[in-house]
């Protein structure tokens, strides 16, 4: 089966460019924007060789994983557009619920046996999706200004479908490792459909309060110890919530509430060992 859009996405004017292998789906989407593409364009691939992660980190994927980028062109402010990362996280979580509802859970002290249980999908601020506590997906937003003064926003979504990186300082996983049989094409079909519902709720930022409520229901780590690396410094405290602008809110060791607009978040043992 090849990549395809859901009927609802097609009905609402979305288009699709699919590749077997690309350098970067985000880069292609940004090129399309500069060439005058009106947006509502998905760029997808099963292998990405020179993608980008947050803060300019290199990111490549194995063949069979999902790399998807959505080009959105609008007149809304960049501050508002930045919240599309939360829309993307919710959309992917909904898609995973639809097509990969269960995972293999190891049983016994030696992990020799397993049983099927519902997959626990959580959202980690700002733009990661976790499955059973390990990173399954990362989301990267990039923007470019257009000649007419508007901005083009590209929402890049990478999902570990068949393989996951092992040389990273945090737990990671893939759908295959979790025992899910969903492939990249099936997951993208569900994602393109789920995006329609969540972007309708977002409504160019007017429905952000509802998106925030939905995101918090799936949030990872609320009430737990957290360390946030911000511009080389590490802030520690308890993760309380995200505020109305989707900033990360912690209660620090002095009892003060601190709002963070950007940073790398670590929970639990990783917060204690890796973020200092």
Find the CATH superfamily of the largest domain.
Answer: Bira Bifunctional Protein, Domain 2
Helix content: 25-40%
CATH class of the largest domain: Alpha Beta
Uncertain regions spanning at least 5 consecutive residues: none
Looking at CATH, which topology of the largest domain would you report?
Answer: BirA Bifunctional Protein, domain 2
- The average pLDDT score comes to 90
Total domain modules: 2
Strand content: 25-35%
Radius of gyration: 18 Å
- Across the major sheet, the strand order is 1-2-5-11-10-9-8
Number of helices: 7
User: How many β-strands, per DSSP?
Assistant: 16
Our measurement of the CA-to-CA distance between the termini, rounded to an integer number of angstroms, reads: 46 Å
Shape: globular
For the sheet with most strands, the description reads: 7 strands, mixed
Would you identify the CATH architecture of the largest domain? Answer: 2-Layer Sandwich
């Amino acid at each position: 089966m090849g990549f395809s859009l859901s009927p609802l996405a097609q009905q609402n004017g979305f288009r699709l460019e699919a590749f077997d292998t690309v350098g970067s789906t985000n880069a292609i989407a940004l090129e399309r924007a500069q060439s005058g593409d009106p947006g509502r364009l998905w760029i997808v691939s099963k292998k990405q060789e020179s993608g980008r992660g947050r803060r300019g980190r290199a990111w490549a994927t194995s063949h069979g994983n999902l790399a998807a980028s959505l080009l959105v062109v609008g007149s809304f402010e960049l501050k508002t557009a930045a919240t599309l990362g939360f829309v993307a996280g919710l959309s992917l979580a909904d898609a995973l619920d639809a097509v990969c509802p269960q995972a293999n859970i190891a049983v016994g002290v030696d992990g020799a046996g397993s049983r099927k249980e519902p997959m626990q999908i959580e959202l980690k601020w700002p733009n990661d999706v976790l499955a059973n506590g390990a990173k399954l997906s990362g989301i990267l937003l990039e923007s470019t200004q257009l000649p007419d003064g508007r901005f083009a926003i590209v929402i890049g979504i990478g999902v570990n479908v068949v393989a996951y990186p092992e040389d990273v300082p945090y737990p990671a996983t893939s759908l295959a490792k979790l025992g899910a049989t969903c492939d990249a094409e099936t997951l993208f079909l569900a994602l393109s459909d789920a995006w329609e519902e969540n972007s309708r709720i977002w409504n160019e930022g007017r429905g952000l309060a509802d998106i925030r409520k939905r995101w918090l229901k799936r949030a990872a780590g609320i009430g737990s110890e957290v360390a946030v690396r911000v511009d080389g410094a590490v802030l520690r405290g308890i993760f309380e919530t995200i505020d109305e602008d989707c900033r990360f809110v912690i209660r620090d060791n002095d009892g003060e509430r601190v709002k963070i607009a950007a940073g790398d978040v670590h929970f639990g043992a990783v917060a204690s060992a890796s973020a200092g």
